[in-house]
């Protein structure tokens, strides 16, 4: 509505918007946020280790459960489990990472500092 009353000013304003450059983010200093990144290193390492250990335990538990299923059923006085079902539930899921592994990986990533806010040190 007001643009038609002031066409020269509108044209100048539109042209200025075309040539306006976005502001560049400030560069972090060399030692900026170094202390917080150093502190976050410990929980990140712990969560990464727990993720790896959980993966190893889950991978090893499949064959162990498969090998011991008959003995456990015998000790409990039950019939041995069906071979196909047992294989699908134990060895078939051997390389699938579980919820624990995914949880620990996501927690470790949450401690990773933003590269744009941490200095070169």
Structure report:
The chain is mostly helical. The chain is 61% helix and 0% strand. It has helices spanning 7-19, 34-75, 83-89, 99-110. Helix 2 (34-75) runs antiparallel to helix 4 (99-110). The chain is elongated and about 95 Å long. It starts with 6 loop residues before the first helix and ends in an 11-residue tail after the last helix.
What attributes characterize this protein structure?
121 residues; mainly alpha; single chain; 4 helices; elongated
Number of strands: 0
Order of helices and strands: HHHH
Distance between termini? 55 Å
Q: What is the radius of gyration computed over CA atoms, rounded to a whole number of angstroms?
A: 30 Å
Please identify the structural class as seen in this structure. Answer: mainly alpha
Could you give the topology of this structure?
Layout: H1 7-19, H2 34-75, H3 83-89, H4 99-110
Helix pairs in contact: 2-4
Task: Write a brief caption for the model.
By secondary structure, the chain is an all-alpha fold. Helices cover 61% and strands 0% of the residues.
